[in-house]
Amino acid sequence: MKIAAPAESFRSMVKGIIPAAGLGTRMRPLTLLIPKELLPVQGKPMIQWALEEAVQADLQHVAIVLRKGKESISDFFEIPKKSNYSSWSHLHEQLSQINLQFVFQKEPLGIGDALYASREFIGDSPFVMIIPDQLLFGDRPATFQVLSAALEDPQAVWSSLVKIPKSELKFFPGVRSFKRARRSDTTWKVLDLYDGSLKSNRSTRIGFGRTYFPSGAVNYFSAEYLNPKSGEVDMLFSFKALIQNYSNYALRLEGQAMDFGTWPAYWYFNSKLYHQSSRC
User: Fold this and answer.
1) pLDDT > 60? residue 2
2) How many Å apart are CA 214 and CA 227, to the nearest integer?
3) Is the pLDDT reported for residue 92 higher than 80?
4) What's the pLDDT score for residue 95?
5) Under a CB-based contact definition with an 8 Å cutoff, are residues 98 and 48 in contact?
6) What is the secondary structure of the chain as a DSSP string?
7) Using 50, 70 and 90 to split pLDDT, how confident is the model at 198?
8) What mean pLDDT do residues 130-148 have?
9) Residues 6 or more apart from 118 whose CB is under 8 A from it?
């Protein structure tokens, strides 16, 4: 059943960005041969889950950010166009509903740089970032929920939060939590962003890989926000600047969040999904 998407006039302006240019170092050696985003979750590659989520939110323009050596991801989406196998018909139908483009990042300088590499594709439009190795399982897709909340104030940044059992926090490495003030039962005003290395600031409610950005926000991911230690555009620097220049909110997502970006997490959450489906 198709979920009623956010207001058509709004969603037609929003573009989707799926960063997939990373090195996949936390899942080597396999990612030396195959991109992490093509590894299966419940029988579908992670990147397909991300694209389907964009379609379910009724986005009309989506870009997947790649780098040299990860062309197999763009090749994957060419297969349904050339194949007559019925197993590809669903993906082919979904691809027909969107304008899918591929943007190439010159060097893997982090997610922030991937967003900035998409600036020509984004233009003056608002956009939503969809991290493909973080997936949400529930009644309403994560991107749909974020865009529904962003309707309240489309000129603000809307981050997402998920509540994680303490036993599973170890499977979400590098995530950050927000200093925030409650606005309602499901939303907060973001006051600051904690450094992920400060474990004392981490809670069971953590940031998730879905964020809506208003027009112009892509400029806050330029080389001006490069971290000299890591050599990457630092999302912490970018978000702190965004907080100074835009209203910032966080939405608590409904659903079960899973991170498939490391081997321990990949096997743990795939096993969890298998046992859940077996009980149904």
Assistant:
1) no
2) 24
3) no
4) 80
5) no
6) -PPPPS-HHHHTT-EEEEE-----GGGTTGGGTS-GGGSEETTEEHHHHHHHHHHHTT-SEEEEEE-TT-HHHHHHHHHHHH---GGGHHHHHHHTTSEEEEEE-SS---HHHHHHHTHHHHTTS-EEEE-TTEEEESSS-HHHHHHHHHTT-TTSEEEEEEE--GGGGGGSTT---EEEEE-SSSEEEEEEE--TT-GGG--SEEEEEEEEE-TTGGGGGSGGGB-TTTSSB-HHHHHHHHHHHS-EEEEEPPSEEEE-SSHHHHHHHHHHHHHHHHH-
7) very low
8) 95
9) 17, 63, 65, 103, 127, 218
Q: What distance in Å separates the CA atoms of residue 253 and residue 134, rounded to the nearest whole number?
A: 13
Structure tokens at 94: 């979904």
> Residue 193 pLDDT > 90, yes or no?
no
Q: Phi and psi (nearest 5°) for 269? A: -75, -35
Spacing of C-alpha 174 from chain mean position: 15
Round to whole Å and give the CA distance between 168 and 175.
Answer: 12
Dmax of the chain from CA atoms?
Answer: 54
Structure tokens given for 34: 């195959």
Euclidean distance between the first and the last CA atom of the chain, given in angstroms as a whole number: 19
R_g of the chain, CA atoms, integer Å: 18
Quote the CA–CA distance of 122 and 127 in Å, as a whole number. Answer: 7
User: Which residues partner with 162 through β-bridges?
Assistant: 206
How far apart CA 272 and CA 263 sit, in angstroms, is 14
For β-strands 40-41 and 187-193, DSSP reports them as unpaired
Average pLDDT, the chain: 87
3-state secondary structure 79-140: HHHHCCCHHHHHHHHHHCCCEEEEEECCCCCCHHHHHHHCHHHHCCCCEEEECCCEEEECCC
